[in-house]
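Let us work through a complete example step by step.
Step 1: write down the sequence.
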Amino acid sequence: MEVYKFCPRSYVGSNSYVLLDGDEAAIVDPSITCAEVSSLIGNRRVRYILLTHCHYDHFRRIDEWVEKTGAEVIIGELDRAGLSSSIVNCYRAFLGVDGGYFGRSTGVRHGDRLPLGNTTIRVISTPGHTAGGVSYYEGNSLFAGDTVFAAGGWGRCDLPGGDELTLFSSIRRLCDLPSGITVYCGHGEETSTDELKKNFK
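Step 2: predict the structure and record it as tokens.
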């Protein structure tokens, strides 16, 4: 699977990732426009919009992606309702307006598997930053959203649905993955499962 990272210029700096495998593609946390990556995706079918959690800065361009690609929106089952709640998705707290995603979505749980091209993406439950946060794992790549950050950082727990003890339990779950996996974070630079094991296990 090929992984491409994009970070729009905004005050929140949320990362988006385009995943390519065979004749299919997926985007993790769409804060970029379709036009920005259309040449990269080419004629591939965009099968999924993979959301790591329900905060607005990680799905700001979702309506455009759904409209133009028809991709299936995937999110942790316990975060589905938060997509349309201005309080839970933090539209109101950070932007002072009501907003959200009100379209169709599919809720996933720990252990679910999502076929993409010639590979399969595994869902890992990682709540704590939000009530239903998930990470997506395939091969040597893990997309962890705001669960963990580079240099030993982790997501904040003071927003709706956040819980520090739950978050650290989720991070320890990620520490059980094999060494040598690149961890793609929701903000900032990448880290690795080796670093997680050193900092959190």
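Step 3: interpret the result. Residues 30 and 62 are 6 Å apart (CA to CA).
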